[in-house]
C-alpha cells in the first residue's frame, strides 16, 4: 500500500496536527508502524495522552483516505509528504509545517524565494511597485511565492510568468478549486510553468481559517517577505508577522500616512520590518553580505569576495569555481583553505558552500 494513504489517514484524525505527527514518526520511525501501533505503544509518545491514543486505535478505516488518494491520481494532483524527496527543505525547519502537500504543476527545489503579498484592492502606486519588483526579481531567477488572490498576489504571479520565472501559488482551498474564480486562467498558467500547492485536500472550499494557515505556510517557504500595501487587519500583515516569528527577512513598502491602505505597511516598519524603497533594498544586501557580514574583514581580497558571491546561492566544486572565475593560478585551493579556516566557507564532499554559521 502506498504510504501516502496513511499520511492522509493521519492528517484527517481530529486532534493530530503536524507537531504530534512528527513526534509519532520520530518515535515509530515509519508511518505504517504508527498505523499498526497499539494503545500501550502510542501512550509513550510525547503529546499523546489517553484520549488521543484511543482515537488513533479506534480510527483505522482507510476508505476515506483511499478515496482522496485515488481522486488525486485521477485529477493529476501530486501528494507530497514529509518523507518524499521533493518535500520542501524549508519546511523541515518547522515542527508545525504541514506533513502533507497537494500539488498541481511541478514543485521544484529552490534555495531562496521571495513572498510578495498585499491588498486585493490595490492602488496604482502599489501595482507599479509590484510589477517593477517582480520584474527585477525575475531577471535574477528568484522564485516568487504568493497567494493567488486578487490585487498584489495576482500581479506578482502574472509578472513572474511573463518573465519566464518560477512562481508558486499557495492557496487556502483544495488545488482543484480556483479562488477567486476570476483567476482560473492565471491558475492554469501557474500550473503549466510553476506550482499551485495546498495543505488542504481536494474539494476544500474557501474557509476563512484555512487562509490563516495558508499565510503561515507562505512565510515558512519564503526567505524574504515583502508587503507592498495592506490595511492593519490584512492577511498580508499576518504573513509578515509569521515571517518575523520565523526569523525571515520582512520588508514593507512605506505609503501615505493618511491612506488607510498603507496603515498596515507603515505599522510593520514601526514594528521592525525593513522599508522597501527599491530593488536595491533587497539585492544590495545579497551583494554586501560577502564583504560585510562575516566579521567585517577589511582585508578580504577581491577574489575572495567573488568566490562568496558565486556560492551565495549554490555550492560549487573547485573546478567549477576555476571556470567561473577564469582562474589560471595554482593557488585557489590555498585561498579556499584560508577562507574555510576563517569561517567564510566550508568544504563538504568536494563542494564549496557558504558557512551557515558565518553568514
Number of helical regions? 16
**In percent, how much strand structure appears in the residues?**
5-15%
As a whole number of angstroms, the C-alpha radius of gyration is 23 Å
The largest sheet, given as strand count, sense and whether it forms a barrel, is:
9 strands, mixed
Please tell me the total number of domains.
3
Elements, N to C (H/E): HHHHHHEEEHEHEHEHEHEHEHHEHHEE
The portion of residues assigned to helices is 40-55%
Shape: globular
Low-confidence stretches: 285-298
Description of the structure:
With 359 residues, the chain is α/β, with parallel strands linked by helices. It folds into three domains: 1-74, DNA polymerase, domain 1 (Orthogonal Bundle), CATH 1.10.150; 114-278, Rossmann fold (3-Layer(aba) Sandwich), CATH 3.40.50; 287-354, Arc Repressor Mutant, subunit A (Orthogonal Bundle). Helix content is 45%, strand content 13%. It has helices spanning 3-11, 18-28, 31-36, 39-42, 50-58, 63-74, 124-139, 152-162, 184-193, 208-221, 235-245, 263-270, 280-292, 302-310, 318-325, 332-341, and strands spanning 78-81, 100-105, 114-117, 144-146, 167-170, 195-198, 224-227, 249-252, 274-275, 316-317, 345-348, 351-354. A nine-stranded mixed beta sheet has the order 1-2-6-5-4-3-7-8-9, with helices on both faces. It has a three-stranded antiparallel beta sheet with strand order 10-12-11. The longest helix is centred in the middle third of the chain and has 16 residues, at 124-139. It starts with a helix and ends in a 5-residue tail after the last strand.
Amino acid at each position: 500500500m502506498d504510504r501516502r494513504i496513511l499520511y492522509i489517514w493521519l492528517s484527517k484524525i481530529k486532534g493530530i496536527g503536524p507537531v504530534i505527527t512528527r513526534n509519532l514518526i520520530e518515535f515509530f520511525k515509519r508511518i505504517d508502524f504508527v498505523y499498526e501501533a497499539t494503545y500501550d505503544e502510542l501512550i509513550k509518545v510525547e503529546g499523546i495522552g489517553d484520549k488521543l491514543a484511543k482515537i488513533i486505535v479506534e480510527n483505522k478505516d482507510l476508505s476515506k483516505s483511499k478515496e482522496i488518494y485515488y481522486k488525486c491520481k485521477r485529477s493529476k494532483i501530486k501528494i507530497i509528504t514529509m518523507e518524499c524527496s521533493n518535500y520542501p527543505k524549508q519546511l523541515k525547519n518547522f515542527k508545525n509545517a504541514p506533513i502533507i502537500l497537494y500539488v498541481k504543476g511541478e514543485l521544484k527545489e529552490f534555495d531562496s524565494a521571495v513572498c510578495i503579498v498585499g491588498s486585493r484592492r490595490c492602488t496604482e502606486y502599489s501595482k507599479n511597485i509590484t510589477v517593477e519588483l517582480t520584474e527585477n526579481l525575475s531577471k535574477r531567477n528568484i522564485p516568487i511565492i504568493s497567494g493567488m488572490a486578487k490585487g498584489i498576489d495576482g500581479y506578482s504571479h502574472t509578472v513572474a510568468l511573463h518573465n519566464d520565472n518560477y512562481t508558486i501559488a499557495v492557496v487556502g482551498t483544495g488545488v482543484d478549486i480556483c479562488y477567486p474564480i476570476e483567476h482560473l486562467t492565471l491558475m492554469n498558467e501557474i500550473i503549466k510553468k510553476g506550482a499551485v500547492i495546498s495543505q488542504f485536500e481536494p474539494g476544500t472550499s474557501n474557509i476563512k481559517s484555512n487562509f490563516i494557515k495558508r499565510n503561515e505556510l507562505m512565510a515558512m517557504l519564503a526567505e524574504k517577505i515583502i508587503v507592498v500595501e495592506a490595511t492593519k487587519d490584512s492577511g498580508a500583515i499576518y504573513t509578515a508577522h509569521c515571517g518575523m516569528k520565523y526569523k525571515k527577512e520582512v520588508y514593507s513598502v512605506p505609503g501615505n500616512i493618511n491612506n488607510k491602505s498603507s496603515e498596515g505597511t507603515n505599522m510593520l516598519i514601526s514594528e521592525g520590518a525593513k522599508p522597501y524603497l527599491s530593488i536595491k533594498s533587497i539585492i544590495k544586501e545579497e551583494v554586501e553580505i560577502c564583504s560585510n557580514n562575516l566579521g567585517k574583514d577589511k582585508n578580504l581580497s577581491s577574489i575572495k569576495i567573488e568566490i562568496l558571491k558565486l556560492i551565495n546561492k549554490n555550492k560549487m566544486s573547485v573546478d567549477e569555481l576555476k571556470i567561473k572565475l577564469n582562474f589560471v593560478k595554482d593557488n585557489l585551493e590555498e585561498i579556499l583553505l584560508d577562507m574555510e579556516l576563517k569561517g567564510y566557507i566550508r568544504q563538504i564532499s568536494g563542494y564549496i558552500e557558504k558557512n551557515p554559521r558565518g553568514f
